[in-house]
User: What shape does this take?
Amino acid sequence: MIGLGTLLNMAAIVVGAALGVLVGHRLPERTRDLITQALGLVTLVVAALNVVDLLDADWIADVGSAAPLLIVLGSVVVGGIIGSLLRLEDRVEQLGGWVQRKVSRGDSATGEGRARFIEGFVDASLLFCIGPLAVLGSISDGLGRGIDQLALKSVLDLFASIAFAASLGWGVAFSAVSVGIVQGLFTLLCALVGSVMAASAIAALTATGGVLLIGVSLRLLKVSRIAVADLLPALVIAPLLTMAVARWF
Assistant: This one.
């Protein structure tokens, strides 16, 4: 069944978030902060592994050895300009605030509770939607090649959502909707048009996603609140730019 992998992933996030909320209030604030920081460190490691695709042999063969880094740089800069003009970060936060108002009552609808909900929704959505498993797993599912990658991602997201929700609450659970939309679109697209992305384009997408994940990790570590959502257009620009350079090269 095409789409089963994304449904499994969404269920894992909701279950993990519920478990995190159940145990989170029993933990002191210092412990919850440490859990979030630990998740930030792990995200930084995952980001580094993704960025390694700058050395992907297929990508270098298609565009040359010097081009991959320039492609990522150009994609992030142009994508950031587009995303900033479209105010994607603000819109994602507004969506999180709207969802929070619909599901919360009383004091939790304002102040610190509202801020934690939005932070959990936005940061978890970015973390769960950006990365090679989200894209490659959805492509594999859409092409009818199985859900192995999304099953693995579901397990990882289950534990990540437990840690996230223990600190940030129910907003993490609603990131499952973001995952359903993003991965569902990739799955549907591949089911309709088949395999159209070259290996080099997928490597460009993965490496650029790694750069964005570094931004997510810095948010989790509270080093800098980078507007990662404004950079999301880079994920579309990177493979397109790779294909354009490959034609010229």
In short: Residues 29-51 form the longest helix (23 residues). The two ends are 40 Å apart (CA to CA).
